[in-house]
Design goal:
With about 300 residues, this protein is of the alpha/beta class. It is about 40% helix and about 20% strand. The protein has a domain at about 40-180 and about 235-295: 3-Layer(aba) Sandwich (Rossmann fold). It is built from 10 helices and 9 strands. The protein is globular and about 60 Å long. It comes from Chryseobacterium contaminans.
Amino acid sequence: MKKILYLLLFISLASCCKNKDGGKNTVKKDSVVADPNNINVSILIDLSDRIDPNTNPNPTMEYYQRDTEYIKAIEKGFVNHIKSKRIITYDDQMQVFFNPEPSDPKMNELTKELKVSFNKDTPRNYFDSVDKKYSELPLKIYNSAIKDGKYVGSDIWEFFKNKVKDYCIKDDRRNILFILTDGYMYHQNTKFEEKNENSYRTSYLTTKLIKANNLTTSNFKDTIEKNSYGFVKANENLSNLEVIVLGINPEKGNPFEEAVIKEYWENWLKEMKIKNYQIKSADLPSNLEPIILKAISGK
């Protein structure tokens, strides 16, 4: 009787171990789960002539100065977030990117300095070091770009196409990308169109294109929808990326220009499955800082 019981028990265990793969036991690896308390913050800077104080002057506060204050606010939000956690849970990083890279070779060294990370072994005095770097180095970057004067544009479209996943997205973190730009998108190496009878998509957006597409009246949204105007989709699924665009600054002459720019961006981000995004105008840093801090805290 005992032998029969043992045999039945063996058969039962064997049948439980079988699966659809021919009865062999397989171990399923756990998938990586993002921890929302660990953040990966990236800053993409548009170093086109939008920052040139001669071409685009602003007597209240120059646009490159606004950018440096935005960056300080981003760093403040990043550090505040880390300080709100227990040291043992530190696993956060922040970095700055350009696309394309400026001609000044010193820029590479500056971006290396601005790539900072925190873990459980990070000493307390590292916070002061990060504050100092983000208070001083961004201004050096802008001053170098302005002094160089060779504004080649900012290839934001190509960055989203070929670099954003590798540079700005970590599977185990909450990923936040800040883009400092006036909202126009243009680079000579990535200027193309996809046009057919149902749509007209471009990799760029200029005030000239906005005028050519007759997006200068209050019914611009209807015109965009009817002709399927917009950016060419640069990526398929960026659902694990949050995007905050800062500095939208339309050219004068078209009262609907800013709204058109924001519509292009919003539709583009949605098409790439980015659910959490904000698109803000080039306001004074004191007005945008609370928005930046809230975006990082997630509260």
